[in-house]
Amino acid sequence: MVPSSATHTVLIVLGILVSAGLAVVCAVLKRALSRAVQDRDALRSRHESFIEESSRQIQSFARISAIIASSLERDQLLSQILLVLLDYLPGTAVRLLVYQRDGHLERIGSSEHHAESGLLKPTDENLFNLIASTSGGKRNPEWDLFLDKEARRLYAYNFPFIAEEQFKGSLIVTGNEPLPERTRLFLGDIAALIASAHQNVLTNRQKEKISEQFGKSVDPRIRDHLLSEPEPGALRQVSVLFLDIRNFTSRSEELGPERTVAFLNEIFTDCDAIIRSRGGFINKFTGDGFMAVFGAPEQTETHPCDAVLAAADMERILSVRDTPVRVGIGIASGIALAGTIGSSSRMEYTVIGDTVNTASRIEGLSKFFGTSILISGATREKLDLSNLDARYFGCFILKGKEKPVKIWGVRSKTAENRDRRTECWSGDFSDAIDSYFSGDFCTAEQLFGTLAQKYSADPAVRWFLGRSKARVHSGDDWDGIERLSEK
User: Fold this and answer.
1) CA-to-CA distance for 181 and 185, rounded, in angstroms?
2) Rg of the chain's alpha carbons, rounded to an integer?
3) Domains of the chain with bracketed CATH
4) DSSP code at position 144
5) Alpha-carbon torsion 192, 193, 195, 196, what sign?
6) Distance (Å, rounded) from C-alpha 333 to C-alpha 364?
7) What would the pLDDT profile of 398-431 be if each residue is shown by its tens digit?
8) What 3-state DSSP class applies to 333?
9) Is 487 helix (H, G, I), strand (E, B) or coil?
10) Quick check: helix, strand or coil at residue 193?
């Protein structure tokens, strides 16, 4: 059956409509596909941009962290951080405003070297406005006070430093384009990092200043020990040394006040160097002398030898000066209480106990015997005498003490010893001492009398000769111990 003309026309129209619909659908699908591709590309671009930005931030953060971990001085530290930020933010101006205690702001980062650089003195209102205007946007004209000409750009962003709840300064970034939010958040974190680093530098600088000043009042080893591990108290085996300058009163009258102080400082500087080289430290000065300790705070087995060798070094060095200086030195070894002792407002590291008192008394005894260095028997037991002469003076109960102490004199065997010909250090002296302390005072008187003819300048010979004569006629009981009523 052949379709009519009307039916044919309808079929044609339907075909046209279907074709048009298909064309529209295709166009819509094409546009949708194009948009999907564009969105995909845009998303990929944003993703790549995000990854790139994150990578740059991580790298910058790592570089700044490495700088902070270094031992740079404050100015070097901040300058290096600025370089990293300029590399991260090309085309911008980056400035650091560092708050000073006197109210000034130090501007760091300007390339200009004229009146605009250096210290700024804002009013309290200006400073408050700066602190209050965190982040930013279009530059506020009030900020021109804090910015050099190079940094006065269209947009300005402020990231204050806050440490210990106090304003320490600001990181300011200016440019001709606004900063993305992610960048602003990142710079806020960097500002906090800079604040912490800057505070650490200031704290370390203050510690160094305290440490330096502390080190002038306290031996550096004691200073470091107290700062790291304060010692409340511990019993230690130590050797204590007391030194006193002989004939100081007449010398000070001759020198006058200023030259006397200079003289003491010079002497004590030389002695301090020797004592430190032997492992000891000067614990306190006593006007024309001092007390030194060996074996604390760090325990050592060689403290008796260290103390005696330091004494011999000091005696030798002081005796060969252009104007020789005579000293009396007393050393005792034994138990002492070591620790930080004092009041609630002032503490010091020291040692106390019978060993300290004994050393002080032995130093005083050196005046009677005219020997520069006297030591206790406990110290003598630990000595290697290969480089030292020693002579035994006997057993004494020192003034204010109850237990007897054996006393020995020591001196260096070096040729510089000026008393080598005037003092008797031979076996003849030992024989006379043995007779005296065994109670044979007649023999002791004869032996010391013979020695006095040859060593008339030896105070020890004269002292024991006088004591022998007195005991020959006293008839007192003798237990082999000499008791002293004087220091």
Assistant:
1) 6
2) 44
3) 69-215 (3.30.450.40), 230-420 (3.30.70.1230), 422-487 (no CATH)
4) G
5) positive
6) 16
7) 888 889 999 999 998 874 555 556 889 989 999 9
8) strand
9) coil
10) helix
